[in-house]
């Protein structure tokens, strides 16, 4: 069967003008290569390191905004295509939020975990990210918490949040510092 491949951005979220991000493509196979596409046009051939390939964007500008995807090839044959990850580049004008997790970073399986993204802005909403996923896992409105019930090993990972306001136009914050959640 065809291999399944994944694509994600790290760190997750909107990138600041002049900032940096990495687009990560991975596959269960390791004897081919990836072609990276932006808005449907090939931009780069990526060599595998193990079963992964990375594309680094530095000094980001509006030109880096777009829909990126990976194709996995062996020889000249495309064996799999990834989903699409949307990369956005914006100026940041909101303060950096703080992500907290209760009861803590290291929890027993089965407990409920509460994520809170705090920002010093009266009308901001926030997005909660888990590294390795294409999209935010949750929108959190101001003064709202996100509860993960009965956590399990699959909930482990590196979490972050990013906030925005949308009056006449979107205004963004930087991405919070990351939190690693471990489930025993």
UniProtKB/TrEMBL annotation:
Residues 3-86 form the Ig-like domain. SUPFAM superfamilies: Immunoglobulin. Coiled coil: none annotated. Transmembrane segments: none annotated. The lineage of its organism: Eukaryota, Metazoa, Chordata, Craniata, Vertebrata. PANTHER family: MHC CLASS I NK CELL RECEPTOR, OSTEOCLAST-ASSOCIATED IMMUNOGLOBULIN-LIKE RECEPTOR. It holds the Pfam family ig. GO terms for biological process: cell surface receptor signaling pathway; immune response-regulating signaling pathway. It comes from Glareola pratincola (Collared pratincole). The gene is Igsf1. This is IGSF1 protein. SMART domains: IG. InterPro entries: Ig-like_dom (IPR007110), Ig-like_dom_sf (IPR036179), Ig-like_fold (IPR013783), Ig-like_Receptors_ImmuneReg (IPR050412), Ig_sub (IPR003599), Immunoglobulin_dom (IPR013151). PROSITE patterns: IG_LIKE (PS50835). Keywords: Disulfide bond, Glycoprotein, Immunoglobulin domain, Repeat.
């Amino acid at each position: 069967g065809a291999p399944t491949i994944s694509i994600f951005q790290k760190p997750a979220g909107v990138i600041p003008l002049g900032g940096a991000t990495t687009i990560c493509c991975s596959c269960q196979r390791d004897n081919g290569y990836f072609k990276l596409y932006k808005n449907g046009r090939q931009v780069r051939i990526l060599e595998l390191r193990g079963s992964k390939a990375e594309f680094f964007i530095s000094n980001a500008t509006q030109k880096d905004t777009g829909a990126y995807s990976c194709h996995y090839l062996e020889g000249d044959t495309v064996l799999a295509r990834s989903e699409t990850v949307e990369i956005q580049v914006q100026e940041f004008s909101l303060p950096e939020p703080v992500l907290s997790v209760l009861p803590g970073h290291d929890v027993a399986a089965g407990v409920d975990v509460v994520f809170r993204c705090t920002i010093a802005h009266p009308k901001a909403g926030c997005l909660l990210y888990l590294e390795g996923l294409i999209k935010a896992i949750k929108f959190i409105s101001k003064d709202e918490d996100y509860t993960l019930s009965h956590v399990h090993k699959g909930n482990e990972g590196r979490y972050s949040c990013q906030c925005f306001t949308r009056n006449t136009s979107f205004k963004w914050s930087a991405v919070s510092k990351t939190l690693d959640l471990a489930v025993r």
